[in-house]
Amino acid sequence: MTKTPQNSTMEMTRVSARWRIVGWIVLTTLLALLAVTVTMRSFLMGQVSESANAAISQEFDEFRVFAQEGVDPTTAEPFTSLEPFMQRYLSRQTPATGEAIIAVVGDQVMYTDNARDDPGELLARDRARLNELVQSSENSGVSDSEHGEMRWGKMSAGAPNGDEQGTLIVVHFTQEAREAVNRQVVVLVGIAMAGLLLTAGIGWLAAGRILQPIRTMREVADSVTAQDLSTRIPVHGRDDLSQLAHTLNNMLDRVERAYGSQQHFVLEAQQHLRGPLSRTAQAIEVLASTDENPAERRRAAKQANRQIRSMRRTLVDLDLLAQSDKPNFVKPQHVSLKQLTVEVYADAAENNPNRQWNLESTANGEAWVDPARIADAMHQVVRNAVDHTDPQDPIRVGSTLTDQGKTLSMWVTNHGIPLNQEQAEGLFEEYRTNSESEDESGMGLGLAVVRAVADAHNGSAWVESGGPSGTRFGIDIPVDALAPRKAGEDEQLAEEVHESMREER
Fold first, then answer.
1. Which of 30, 214, 271, 393 has its CB surrounded by the most CB atoms within 10 Å?
2. Same domain for 238 and 335?
3. Residue range 134-151: average pLDDT?
4. DSSP states of 68-122 as a string?
5. Do 172 and 152 form a contact (C-beta atoms < 8 A)?
């Protein structure tokens, strides 16, 4: 059986991201500089060849002009002999660098040379090689020599009497010019290498600055533990890494909320089930005892039944909280606000007949809400009011439209023990309970349900206490926040958001 090495990925990523970035920058720059250098050398070498060809052509042009206009200085008349004609022409010429001009008249060879190491003189003395050029069927060409590349051209000339024939050969040795090009290329390569080192240094510094947020993210990720999920990544600017940091912070927020929710569920389950389980066990012991009288056993049976209902209610609340993060937690309907308020009031009065219930006010209008979830939230508020009042105490239920009819406000008011400001402000903090004993159910679970329902409707839960009207718990819900959008509204909303972002920038 073939086993795949577990550290193969580690080996592939052993080089740090900073070095990989610098490596790619250096490699890309090196390839660009190499292409520029090769292209420049090819261009300069082509110029050497073109300059040599142009110099040869220029010499022939000057030779033609001299043949038409030149005169013998001794007679002031046109030349009658080819040899003095050639001598006179050569004496007036100054060859370009690397150039040699050779005149061949019969057995006579005349030359002038301006090339390093006198290759023109050596060629003029090499009669065999010279004859090859004179007798060649080509008027120009490129040949190799001991002194490198040799570009040449020839032109025939004749005396006026027609008895003498001669050849003018212009030779250009390009080795010196090519060596000069190579020296320039070497200098260019040196400058390029210095620039490459500078680029590598700048790339190293730039990569460090670019990767700094990533290192910060790694450090934050290393510092996050199950005991401490509060660390967040600093966000600066609006670039891609800043957006990534913002996304990771949002992810950490969700993880922290999920972890807190999980811990909260465990604590709430322990707190709300510990007392009823203990009392149920006591009741079962009484029922199992044969020594107890029938009245005591009936009382124990009622106690057990009551505790079972309490535990079932706790499980229902926990299940509702567990579903609150799901997208289909609420199913909005177009409902009458007056009817919704009356139903909440009627349910509260029916299930808690030992309190004085009053319908304080009802909102007139309609809204897009989930009536079942609103009823769940108000049931928790009602139960909270019942738990903190005495029998026959008055409790009021009401609703109204605020914010020019855009927000539904529903509440339950009781005259129990008032809350101080700190208690009121912290009451709806996430996963807070107010129970002081094991046997007493706290408000944390019920009010967590209220807040979850309000949040799911894009609303808020609130409490007012200390005034003459007593303590009031309620929720504020936008009436149209969950309404189905009409055709084109999504596009209009997206355009408005885009315009707002553009104005902020």
1. 271
2. no
3. 90
4. HH--BTTTTB--SSHHHHHHHHHHH--PPTTEEEEEEETTEEEEEE-STT-HHHH
5. yes
For residue 419, give the DSSP letter.
P
Regarding whether 31 and 167 lie in a shared domain, the answer is yes
Contact 68, 193 (CB under 8 A): no
> What sign does the dihedral 462-329-496-479 (CA atoms) show?
negative
Q: Report the mean per-residue pLDDT for the chain.
A: 82
402: left (phi over 0), alpha (psi -120 to 50) or beta: beta
**For residue range 3-29, what is the model confidence (pLDDT) as tens digits?**
444 444 445 567 788 888 899 999 999
Residue 374 one-letter amino acid: I
Q: How many CB atoms lie within 10 A of CB 468?
A: 5
* Structural domain contains residue 382: yes
Type of residue at 284: I
User: What distance in Å separates the CA atoms of residue 400 and residue 382, rounded to the nearest whole number?
Assistant: 17
For β-strands 356-361 and 394-402, DSSP reports them as parallel
Do residues 110 and 125 lie in contact, with contact meaning Cβ atoms separated by under 8 Å? Answer: no
Q: Percentage of the chain with pLDDT > 70?
A: 86
Q: How far is CA 411 from CA 67, 381, 468, in A?
A: 121, 8, 16
Q: How far apart are CA 261 and CA 258, in angstroms?
A: 5
What is the number of helices (H) and of strands (E) in the chain?
13, 12
Domains: count for the chain: 3
